[in-house]
Write a structure and sequence with these properties.
404 residues, alpha+beta, Beta-Lactamase, Helix Hairpins
Length: 404
Amino acid sequence: MDELVLAFIAALSIVTGAALLIAVVRGGTLERLREILGAPRGADLEAAARRALDDRETAEWEAGRAAADTTYLLDLVGAGIIRLDPDLRVAAANEAAHVFLDRASGELVGLSAIEALGDHRIESLARRAHEVGWANGEIAGGDGQQTLIVRARRSPIEGLWLVIEDVSELRRLQRIRAEFIDNLSHELRTPLTTVRLLTETLARDLDGSELPPRIRDGIVKIDVETGHLVQMVNELLDLSRIEQGSAPLHLSQVDVGQLVRASVERLALFAERQGVTLRADVEDELPPVRGDEDRLGQLLINLLHNAVKFSDAGGAVTLRARRDDGQIRLSVEDEGIGIPRSDLDRVFERFYKVDKARVGVRGGTGLGLAIVRHIAESHGGRVWVQSEEGRGSTFTVAIPASEV
């Protein structure tokens, strides 16, 4: 074997590694070498070897460029991104991850999960994701100044990906908003209650008086509008407390049938004034639900009040209670103006109002249904709506049944 062939073999060993060299030596023929290089018979073996070497260099250059581009992209992302290897050691981390974890640039790579993350709760999320495929959590620092949301996902290739978002500022603003609403509600409640009492007293004193009709109407309107303001303040305060978790649930075994009938009775006078028929339809021998009776009553009152308010005179509203596959379903059906399809997904948002549904009717604060959603979810349930514009709506709440 001449020097040129030996040079080819040396080049090939660089390009394709020891396996190729062994194959050539064992094969002992240039034909085997051509086969490995993919060169046709009579082709220049030196050129084929050079092409193979160039292809490898090109592939390495492309891989390096892709890695650099990926690293640059990860550094542009505002979220911290960390890749852990199968042994839960940091294989890569972007600049945001170093900032969130208070590390110098490049310091995280090679550290174990607990060394890098510095918090056993984040490490626990990583281990859970390693076992079951995913894990999420919100981690608040001991000083209460930093709050991180961590999402861990198992890679389809190997290892884990962690995405870390700093929501400290968002949580701070949420606390400020909640405190503002709470303080404002308390400050408004006392004077509004006083005004309401005064207007109610004046309205009672109008009986038999000789005041002009214009003054009578003005006092009645003040009473009505003050009532709406009091309702708005109460709903703001309720929603603020529920969202902060400062309104604890006083759990007990709640008799659903009794709660339904009591709710219908409470709103019977309001429905009568609106010219709406209000009725209850309760399945026999319903199991109880474990929950806060006052909160569940508030949920039903809000749904019934909305249904009556958006029903035309002569319409009917029915509150049904049914057992359904381990759950109790409470549905409020009305024959009112309905909700446009485009608004169905948003009716449970805070302050959201359906413009078309407010034609000729008072729209309310837009908080009642948001409170309903929070109460349902705090009881392990959910709420949804089915509606067709002009044909009424059905709001349904499903809550797990409880065995006595």
